[in-house]
Design a protein that fits this description.
Blueprint (H helix, E strand, L loop, with lengths): L16 E3 L2 E4 L2 H12 L4 H15 L9 E7 L4 E6 L9 H8 L22 H12 L4 H4 L1 H9 L1 E2 L2 H14 L5 H5 L11 E2 L2 H12 L4 H4 L1 H12 L6 H5 L4 E3 L2 E5 L2 E5 L6 H11 L12 H21 L10 H4 L2 H8 L20 E7 L5 E7 L9 E2 L4 E2 L30 E5 L2 E9 L3 H14 L5 H6 L3 E3 L5 E3 L5 H9 L16 E7 L8 E5 L6 E4 L1
Antiparallel strand pairs: 1-19, 2-10, 2-20, 3-4, 3-11, 4-7, 5-6, 8-9, 9-14, 10-11, 12-13, 14-15, 15-18, 16-17, 18-19
Length: 541
């Protein structure tokens, strides 16, 4: 094949898609897999599951069968949330890591970022099954068919995936099973090179016929546990067998007459709600859309929210304060007063009153809408791939703290702090938009930035999606996209924002997918957007 320069030095403008049935993902083959299910008479949830199974193959840097998932679904009457993030194996605690890896200079246990001791129980397949049981119309096995076909025949690796794949290889090449699966010919695939993933095809067939249970108590489960244990891990079949997703009520916050809904902790969606609750106290619409003043207020509100996020959020069962306390109007009004419009501030956490990821979305003409996200966390997750199955396992164990005093301290059967969050927007109890932005810590930040652009500045979804973004790090330094106006960047520096370019080939500035309902009438359909930062697309009919 001809060796093109696959970069594009010219701006590429995407046009939003209008249709009655829509799927929007970060990979065209996944979007088309979902569309196939809609054309067969399946629901939006059927489409999302087919797309999710496919994207686990075609975007393996970001997700796999050993990942986690969350979803928010509008079923035509109510909004339901699903938390399908896995918990720690029963054997995990601080002493487990201290005895195995020693302690750091602070006296806290060391914990690996990759390998078997970074793996929590995978939840994604159980999440697909739970969604299908409640909202599916087609047989579950049918939803695996597009992915199986692609796994057996292979697919041409697109540019962004190829770039992120190659970036992960140096760190992961020695992890158990990684090179055999993801380094054909001893390297990452080149752009346009065909990658075949036959091991996954067989696993998906077993998942399809057992409605997902094979991964938790069947042949695949036995292979997963045997391989983890052979490489020093403490996971057991009982850890897998006992896992069940949890249906939850989304948490919410009003903003400019709309309501943003997020999954409650252990995820970080609450930070987006807090930031918008703070911004409600400022007239952003009176400021120019890309001005220093507008961006500064959004950044400062996000800082305040993130300070509380990292202090308080953990498995919801172990939090010191409740989400309701963190979202209290009076508390957020108090936090808003801390913002100086003329100066950047490094905020600490407040005290509320007490008492590697893909995102996709689908909607159908019955009115069902699903906001769905799944992830292996960092590029390829743990790097561990179970031979003969194609199951690549996440590294969500990194989300735990080793500090015994932290609400997020590691413990058996406890969920870690999670970055992946689906979003959903309503108005007056009526669905408006299913959306999300994948990419680690930027997710709540991008939720805020895109919602502000749409609600305060009336930017259409594709424009709001493609607009330049900023990203706060955990030390509250700031990174900005090169497409941001030069005068805005200079103005933020003048206000005291510490700008630091981040070498982050995997997460970068995230990637969003958006489906906006055009009216209250199903017949009017939707407008959909897909982020130009990835290889994906929105499709519909």
């Amino acid at each position: 094949m001809k060796q093109f320069d696959w970069s594009n030095p010219y701006p590429s403008i995407r046009i939003p898609v209008f249709a009655r049935n829509v799927v929007s993902t970060s990979h065209p083959l996944a979007a088309q897999a979902g569309l196939r299910m809609l054309l067969k008479g399946g629901s939006a949830v059927d489409a999302a599951i087919a797309a999710a199974a496919t994207i686990a193959l075609v975007e393996p840097v970001s997700c796999g069968l050993g990942g986690d998932a969350f979803a928010i679904v509008w079923d035509g009457k109510t909004l339901q949330g699903l938390n399908s993030s896995g918990y720690a194996p029963q054997a995990w605690n601080v002493d487990y890591f201290k005895n195995k890896y020693g302690v750091n200079e602070k006296g806290l246990a060391n914990a690996p970022k990759r390998g078997v001791d970074a793996i929590t129980i995978p939840g994604v397949v159980a999440g697909w099954a739970a969604l299908h049981e409640r909202y599916g119309k087609l047989p579950f096995a049918d939803l695996m068919e597009p992915a199986i076909e692609i796994a057996e025949r292979g697919y041409a690796v697109p540019p962004v995936v190829a770039q992120k794949w190659a970036a992960a290889v140096p760190e992961l090449k020695d992890q158990p099973g990684f090179a055999h699966t993801f380094m054909p010919n001893g390297r990452a695939p080149h752009v346009g090179e065909r990658f075949v993933f036959k091991d996954v095809a067989n696993t998906l067939r077993r998942i399809g016929t057992t409605k997902g249970r094979d991964l938790y108590e069947g042949e695949t489960a036995e292979k997963i546990i045997a391989f983890i244990q052979a490489n020093g891990g403490a996971h057991t079949l009982e850890d897998l067998r006992s896992f069940q997703p949890e249906w939850v009520t989304p948490i919410a916050k009003n903003y400019r007459g709309y309501t943003l809904h997020e999954i409650p902790p252990n995820g970080q969606g609450i930070a987006a709600l807090m930031a918008l609750g703070i911004l409600e106290h400022f007239d952003l619409a009176s400021l120019k859309v890309d001005s220093v003043e507008s961006q500064h207020l959004q950044i400062e509100a996000m800082k305040l929210a993130m300070a509380d996020l990292y202090r308080y959020v953990s498995d919801g069962r172990t939090m010191e304060v409740t989400p309701a306390q963190m979202l209290d109007d009076a508390y957020l009004a108090q936090r808003a007063k801390l913002i100086d419009p003329n100066k950047a501030t490094h905020f600490g956490s407040g005290q509320p009153a007490t008492g590697g990821t893909i995102y996709l979305t689908a909607a159908d003409e019955s009115g069902m809408m699903i906001s769905f996200i799944q992830s292996n966390y960092m590029g390829f997750g743990s790097g561990v791939v179970v031979p003969g199955t194609g199951v690549s396992l996440q590294n969500r164990g990194v989300g735990f703290s080793m500090d015994p005093n932290s609400p997020n301290v590691v413990a058996g059967r406890k969920r870690p702090f999670h970055t992946i969050i689906p979003g959903f927007l309503t108005r007056g109890g009526v669905p408006v938009m299913s959306f999300g932005v994948m990419g680690g810590d930027i997710q709540p930040q991008a939720h805020v930035q895109t919602v502000v652009r749409m609600l305060d500045y009336n930017q259409q979804p594709q424009a709001a999606c493609c607009a330049p973004r900023w990203k706060l790090t955990r030390d509250f330094t700031l990174d900005v996209e090169s497409t941001m106006r030069v005068e805005t960047i200079a103005g933020l520096k003048d206000l005291g924002h510490q700008l630091k370019a981040i070498d982050d080939p995997y997460m970068d500035f995230g990637s969003g997918q958006f489906i906006w309902r055009l009216s209250d009438l199903h017949e009017d359909g939707y407008v959909a957007a897909s982020d130009s930062r990835r290889d994906g697309q929105a499709v519909g009919f």
